[in-house]
Design goal:
Elements lengths: L1 H30 L20 H7 L3 H10 L2 H7 L8 H5 L9 H10 L5 H10 L10 E2 L14 E2 L9 E3 L12 E3 H16 L6 E3 L4 H15 L1 H7 L7 H4 L2 E4 L12 H9 L5 E3 L6 H4 L7 E4 L2 H10 L3 H7 L3
Parallel strand pairs: 1-2
Antiparallel strand pairs: 3-4, 5-6, 6-8, 7-8
Helix pairs in contact: 6-7, 7-15, 9-10
Bound molecules: zinc ion.
Zinc ion binds next to β6.
Length: 326
């Protein structure tokens, strides 16, 4: 009997040992860092970092290489970063919006604008601000979406016309002109103007959808009247206007000299327009980003959710899109 117990004990111990070895091997296999992981939204693989020596030879410090290893994939290092050393690479690379292929542009923009944070340099370059307005233009294809952007880098296809324009009710304007807007924005506009009225604020439409030829005349008139510089600041070139998208309105007055910014109407719009899906599109202090002078009368429809997010973010639509692009 005793003998059996001993054999049984030995058998149990062996089983435990085998089980222990199995657990140990399993642990080793699964703590191996070969699996691909997604880090910072990039296709960073936690494979062995193979460019350490090249980066050392270029003159990066061990600490800098750690940052590069953590933020930039082997592929990006190989494709964009092995030609020369970039002084501020690790500072740009810590921005969540960093793209290795644009490192030359970040460095060059930084030398001319070193008052901006490294994060802002990355955002501004991604917007395209390192290039002159109207010099590197992309034609948009998402013009039917309410989040489409047009600015001095993005334009509409030639002679684009929205196919769901609706006339604005006489109640919301003071002239006989037939103002139109894309259907999606009309009811929200009415709701906004009605809500303002309840608060004792009188709002009315002075400009809405514009055809390409109207925009051409407006730009040329502004240029002839106030000069090219003024026209470029307050008027869009044809194809580049949000009014052509059918998703923008000017309210009460569209004139920088009339100082709408001092009015209670503007204060109300600034605090409330997002609740109806409209954003102040060309705010004060952001002229260098939007490319337009301060236009307190100009509101862009984005839908309540997106307008609210842009409002909370406190940035221009240009910055918002870079920060939230997928
Ligand atoms: Zn406008």
């Amino acid at each position: 009997m005793k003998k059996y117990l001993i054999w049984f004990g030995i058998a149990m111990l062996s089983l435990l040992m085998i089980f222990g070895i199995y657990i140990y091997i399993d642990h080793i296999i699964h703590t191996d860092d070969s699996p691909t992981i997604v880090k910072d939204g990039k296709d960073k693989t936690k494979e062995e970092y193979i460019y350490k020596e090249d980066l050392l030879l270029l003159g990066y410090s061990v600490d800098e290489i750690k940052i590069i290893e953590n933020k930039i994939s082997n592929t990006d290092v190989k494709n964009y970063l092995l030609e020369k050393k970039y002084d501020n690479l690790t500072k740009f690379a810590t921005s969540p919006y960093f793209k290795a292929e644009n490192i030359e542009r970040y460095e060059s923009y930084y030398t001319k604008n070193n008052e901006y944070s490294f994060d802002n340099i990355v955002i501004y370059v991604e917007i395209g601000l390192d290039k002159e307005f109207y010099t590197d233009i992309t034609e948009i294809t998402n013009h039917d979406e309410i989040d489409a952007i047009v600015n001095k880098y993005y334009k509409l296809p030639s002679n684009f016309t929205p196919n769901d324009l609706v006339s604005i009710d006489a109640k919301y304007k003071k002239s006989n002109y037939d103002y139109t807007l894309r259907q999606v924005a009309v009811e929200p506009l009415y709701s906004m103007i009605d809500a303002a009225k309840k608060d004792g604020i009188d709002l009315w439409v002075v400009s809405a959808y514009r055809t390409e030829s109207t925009q051409t005349s407006l730009f040329n008139n502004s240029k002839n009247k106030d000069g090219l510089e003024h026209a470029l600041l307050y008027s869009a070139k044809p194809g580049h206007s949000e009014h052509q998208l059918g998703l923008a309105v000017d309210l009460n007055l569209a004139n920088s000299k009339a100082h709408f910014e001092d009015s209670k109407e503007y204060a109300w719009l600034k605090a409330n327009s997002y609740k109806f899906g409209f954003i102040e599109r060309y705010p004060k202090g952001k002229e260098f980003i939007t490319g337009y002078g301060f236009e307190p009368w100009h509101y862009r429809y984005l839908g309540v959710e997106l307008a609210t997010n842009v409002y909370i973010d406190g940035s221009t639509y240009e910055e918002y899109l870079i920060k939230h692009s997928k």
